[in-house]
Amino acid sequence: MVHGGAWDIPDDMVKQHKKGVQDAITAGWTMLSRGGTSVDAVTETIRILENDDTFDAGRGSFVNMVGDIELDASIMDGGTLTAGAVAAVQNIKNPILLARAIMEKSEHVMLTGIGATRFAREHGVKTCGHDDLITDRELARWREYQSRKKVSAKEIFRKKKMPSDTVGAIAMDKFGNVASGTSAGGTPNKHPGRVGDSPIIGCGTYADNEGGAVATTGWGEALMKVVMAKTVYDLMEKHGDPDKAIQEALSILEKKTGGYGGVVALTSEGKIGFGYNTPRMARGYMTSEMKNPIVDV
Ligand code: GLY
Fold it and tell me: Which residues are within 8 A (CB) of 160 and not within 5 positions of it... i.e. 6 or more apart?
């Protein structure tokens, strides 16, 4: 199951969001159907979304206040509760690959900034130039933000307008192991060093074979305050129903923080659910009973 951001996605961007989600699910599903693990499927799905300019992850990410691109990502293996994450990392083409390398090749969970880039070089994760991540669309958005009076993310998110194209994926493999991952470029014109919910285990990402897997999207500052992914996970264990758990967590989010976002989730029995309190959320899923993925925005 995949999400490609929850926000007021304009009509003229719907088609490319659907295509991006469809391509990513197809890649992840191919991985699973060839006997790959849920961690492999989540990694591959997110790698494809990061390479797609449509989304605020990898290439196409929002530009920060000083013109840099700083990326966040995390991955969690529900079979072992091992996790890896990167925050505010620069010059990394696919932050999800670095998060996975940290999960598998270090004794840490999260690396940030230049230390994370150094780890990438040490472990053969591809680095890239700033220009390889930036797109004309985001350069134009950045120039517009720079030229106008500062409007806080809080104000924009209250109107549900802030672009929030974070990507995420959850999967269950044939062994019954679940995994979750999330990747984001954060918010437009953010302060350098700003870290959102996406790399924080329990906020953007959570997976445990006992209860299932969750990935979130939306306004990170609000999602972090209610530990969104773990809140959904706990409610899913309580209700046994992902849709109900997501709706309850979204009400908590809105009531306590005025926040907006979306969630995809699956239980350890393989029940899937999604929900959002924004006008739209790009999402899709595929199960072993289906011939083709279902994708919607
Ligand atoms: N949900 C992504 C972020 O706020 O950074």
Answer: 7, 8, 260, 278, 279
Structural domains for the chain: 2-296 (3.60.20.30)
Cα dihedral 104, 51, 159, 148 sign? positive
Q: Which of 198, 203, 263, when mutated, tests ligand 1's pocket best, judged by the most ligand atoms within 8 Å of its CB?
A: 198
Q: 228 CA to middle of ligand 1, Å?
A: 12
pLDDT tens by residue, 177-216: 999 999 999 999 999 999 999 999 999 999 999 999 999 9
Q: How much is the pTM?
A: 0.95
Token reading at 108: 């840490």
Ligand 1: centre distance to CA 196 (Å)? 5
CB 214 within 8 A of CB 206: yes
> Count of residues for the chain?
297
Q: Among this protein's residues, is 216 annotated catalytic? A: no
CA 78, 204, 219 angle in degrees (round to 5)?
165
Q: Is 215 helix (H, G, I), strand (E, B) or coil?
A: strand
75 strand-pairing partners: 84, 181
Q: Which residue has the tokens 């290439």?
A: 59
What is the whole-number distance in angstroms between the Cα of residue 30 and the centre of ligand 1? Answer: 28
The DSSP bridge partners found for residue 85 are 74, 110
User: Which amino acid is it at 155?
Assistant: E
126-131: long-range contacts, CB 8 A cutoff, minimum separation 24? 126/92, 126/93, 126/94, 126/97, 127/91, 127/92, 127/93, 128/91, 128/92, 128/93, 129/91, 130/68, 130/69, 130/90, 130/91
Task: Report which ligand 1 atom has the smallest distance to the Cα of 194.
Answer: 5
Please tell me which residue in 37, 43, 54, 166 is annotated as part of the active site.
166
Q: What is the pLDDT of residues 21-32, one digit of tens each?
A: 999 999 999 999
